[in-house]
Amino acid sequence: MAPEDEHPRHTAQDPKPYAGEHITVTYEAGRCLHAAECVGGLPEVFDSGQRPWVRPDGADPERVAEVIRRCPSGALLYRLAEGPAEEPDRPTSVVRPPAGQLVLRGELSVTGPDGTVRQETRVMLCACGMSGNQPYCDHSGPCGHA
Hints:
Layout: E1 16-19, E2 23-27, H1 37-41, H2 61-68, E3 76-80, E4 93-95, E5 102-111, E6 117-125
């Protein structure tokens, strides 16, 4: 298994928090679809070539939060030291890109195969039933390939 600070591809593991002075960034590797909104949006904070790959104090916390909100899969979350948690989009939106996944943003309750319900603000769900990380897309089935 990869060291805990690595940026692994599609491995099942618990979400990993990266605490900064004013913001904590949480990364769930099994949900990451490598849209690269983070590394492209704030390379001074998100650098997959460095360890740790997330450095929350590398930019203003509001900028870090703004870039995290671009993450379509919900693999990245944030919590500001002072201020509200991430607010869900209102109204909730559901988009089906040409590849077929379902991209949802809003106030979401997602039920996993074991019946566990997670409160989410951003998710990319599998639409083909072939994901190894149901109900989330992991690009392993036909709906994950463009």
